[in-house]
Amino acid sequence: MEPAPIVMSARGVVKRFGDLCVLDGVSMDVRAGEVVVIIGPSGSGKTTFLRCLNHLERIDAGEILVHGRSVGYRPGPGRPVEERPKVVAERRRNIGFVFQRFNLFPHMTALENVAVAPVKVLGVPKEEAREQAHALLARVGLADKAASRPSALSGGQQQRVAIARALAMKPDLMLFDEPTSALDPEMVGEVVTVMKELVADGMTMIVVTHEMAFARSAADRLVMFDNGVIVEQGAPDDLATSAEENRTKAFLRRIDSSQ
Q: Which of 77, 87, 93, 150 has its CB 3.0 to 4.6 Å from that of 83, i.e. a possible disulfide?
């Protein structure tokens, strides 16, 4: 059986903030239908890597390809040249991004938050976009909250709206940046349940999270970041029981003891 096609490929990605090297030559492939969970201590480069994949952060070296095409750059004399914003937006639209802090439009209802991007970016007729938005809100268990604004929703409900909003663009790849870390403990389960349903549907996902229960039950691969490099990676059960690197062992012990 042939392996699934590669959806995202990172090659030697370097990202600096001034003199600080946050990503130091990171390389990774993610195949269609794969669920990759990135773990590691704060400041290890996890979120920066995720933002680079979507060109929310510019890289200093290396390349990032989605379906074989660079998200933010084109070849240039000596080094790649950043694409025009319109081209970047077109390349980015197949990548869904769910943020830690929801980032919903406060003046819009849940339905409007979900429907706005398909109308403005994809040119979907408004009524069709609203029908799709209703269906997506039902999919994440919020059919009865379509008319509610973010201020009237709990944190877990806001995050589920954010997931529906990302799904509205029909992405090939979903990126989750610590999607439960801003939630009260009792709200974490409702978001994790939606994420597991996406896994069951075959969505390709890269998730930065400390929710090890989700990682162990849903991930195909755990990737351990530290000091801007990939320290170790493997199947969740393998890393949990027989990690080779002391940094991985120490991190997993610390996470397990806190959950």
A: 87
pTM (global) more than 0.90: yes
CA separation (Å) from 157 to 118, 129, 141, 168?
A: 21, 20, 9, 16
> From the DSSP assignment, how many helices (H) and strands (E) are in the chain?
9, 12
161 residue type, one letter = V
- The Cα 252–Cα 134 span in angstroms is 40
Q: CA–CA separation, 56 vs 248, rounded Å?
A: 28
CA 166 – CA 137 distance, rounded (Å): 11
Q: What is the pLDDT of residue 184?
A: 87
Distance CA 198, CA 91 (A): 22
Read off the amino acid at residue 55.
H
How far CA 248 is from CA of 30, 130, 220, 229, in Å, comes to 21, 45, 17, 12
CB atoms within 10 A of CB 164: 27
pLDDT tens for 30-61 read 999 999 999 999 999 999 999 999 999 999 99
**H/E element, 49:** helix 46-53
The backbone region for 78, taken as left when phi is positive above 0, alpha when psi lies in -120 to 50, beta otherwise, is left
Give the mean pLDDT of 200-227: 93
